[in-house]
Amino acid sequence: MSFIIISGQSGAGKSQAKKVFEDLGFYCVDNLPPSLIPNFLELIEQSNENLSHVALVMDIRGGKFFKDLEKNLVLMDEKKYKYQIFYFEADDDVLLKRFKETRRTHPVDPSARIEDALEKEKKMLNALREQANIVINTSNLNHAELKQEISKHLEMDVSKSPMALTLISFGFKRGIPLDSDFVFDVRFLPNPFYVEALRLYTGNDLQVSDYVMGFEESQLFFNHIVTLLDFAFSKFQQDGRMQLVVSVGCTGGQHRSVTFINRLADYYQQKGHPVQKVHREIKGASND
């Protein structure tokens, strides 16, 4: 089991780091009292959930409980539990600016000047910092750079992980899916609704999909879409994105958009992307 302890200075980005670990497949728990670590690990080992990656956020917010961390780390060493400590810090001026911008008090001493609280916390955490396997300064890191830094130390190449895709067909008369990252409009293509023999079928039926893709403009537009998406996906992956939503709409969401989403799903599944397919306007449709 890959077991990580996330700790460090208040305001140094531990909450963002937790989100990164979650994106990387870790089961994360925030602010668990250190005295519960051994019991928590035993619970994980006895669980049927097959949790192979676990990260716990532990910091000064735990108050007096945080003081138990050192002796519990010794206990973990005695029990031969393998773990890594990721310690996050930032320059004093950066931390001060972050606290000022968010108007938060410092958890070490809410009534003290932030500068004094920062110095006090640094002294309290010095021994843990010395024990840390990885120390990351977040002063100049954005979220994507933080993800790359964490991934590097975990020896995980995020840019090579296939991006998960949600592909949605919809009808414009019911509105665009609000979670869409990309929206394509295929209403300019010939509409099977006006072909009496096809009206009662959907893009899930071969005769409809063959009709829609039987036009040169359909083939050209599909090729333009995948060219754009292929380029965009590679850039988004470099930026640390793990999932995107692509929506294709026609008038009623029954024929043209369904055909295109099915074709896109086939194309990206063959390229190794995890794909969830949703036909929003087709009741009882099998979405996979």
Automatic annotation (TrEMBL):
Gene3D superfamilies cross-referenced by the UniProt entry: P-loop containing nucleotide triphosphate hydrolases (3.40.50.300)
Residue positions binding GTP: 59-62
Record keywords, A-Z: ATP-binding, Coiled coil, GTP-binding, Nucleotide-binding
InterPro entries per the UniProt record, alphabetical: P-loop_NTPase, RapZ-like, RapZ-like_N, RapZ_C
Domain RapZ C-terminal: 163-283
Residue ranges of every copy of the RapZ-like N-terminal domain listed in the record: 1-156
Keyword Coiled coil assigned: yes
Coiled coil segments of this chain: 111-138
Superkingdom as given in the UniProt entry: Bacteria
Binding site for ATP: 8-15
NCBIfam families (UniProt xref): PRK05416.1 (NF003828)
Protein's name in the database: UPF0042 nucleotide-binding protein
